[in-house]
Specification:
With about 200 residues, the chain is α/β, with parallel strands linked by helices. The chain has eight helices and six strands. The chain is globular. It starts with a strand and ends with a helix.
């Protein structure tokens, strides 16, 4: 089986990062914030302007993509899936936005180094633009592990999606969507074919 896996929000806990470093950024810059964990967009999750959100990511994106700790058991489960003969396709919407100076143009390099450092094995790393649907369909992915509410809904129209639980996606339900609360829960859904 070809398993598609998103990075941000699935392999990493982007919700926690935005909360921790977003509040730090706001305090350091005397910005008023209001945490809204039901919002996927970081500006809305922090209750700050798009301009301040851009400043936040300009300050912290490199730290996020190079130093984030993977979710518990992610590497273990991915290795287990590979040992069982599954192919792993990492499908990410990461782009150069937020990287500047000498870091601009290094998103792929930083992502590959992070994956290697954290022992996350994969068969193919795919950087997307726009909808992930054509990338999933074009690479014959059988099931996608995703957290973005928009992506979950779009992808579920074409193939099964395991929605990795975050506060901002807890209301997402529908045909071809199954919820997972941990990497072992993802594994169980794949193993039992409950999608």
């Amino acid at each position: 089986m070809r398993i598609g896996i998103d990075i941000d929000g699935v392999l990493t806990d982007s919700e926690r990062f935005v909360t921790e470093y977003g509040t730090k950024f706001c305090i350091e810059n005397n910005l008023t914030y209001r945490i809204k964990l039901d919002k996927y967009d970081s500006a809305k999750a922090l209750g700050i302007s798009p301009e301040n959100d851009e400043k936040f990511w300009n300050r912290y994106l490199k730290k996020y993509i190079t130093e984030s700790i993977p979710r518990e058991c992610a590497s273990e489960i991915i290795n287990k899936l590979k040992e069982e003969g599954h192919e792993i396709y990492l499908v990410t919407a990461r782009n150069e936005w937020g990287l500047s100076g000498d870091d601009y143009g290094k998103m792929k390099e930083y992502t590959e180094k992070w994956l290697k450092k954290n022992k996350i094995n994969y068969d193919k790393l795919i950087f997307t633009e726009g909808s992930k649907v054509p990338y999933c369909v074009g690479n014959y992915i059988d099931v996608m592990v995703e957290d973005s509410p928009k992506n979950v809904k779009q992808i579920a129209k074409k193939l099964p999606v395991i929605c990795y639980h975050n506060s901002y996606n807890e209301d997402i339900k529908g045909k071809n969507i199954i919820r997972a609360y941990s990497w072992y829960d993802v594994y169980n859904s794949i193993k039992t074919g409950s999608f």
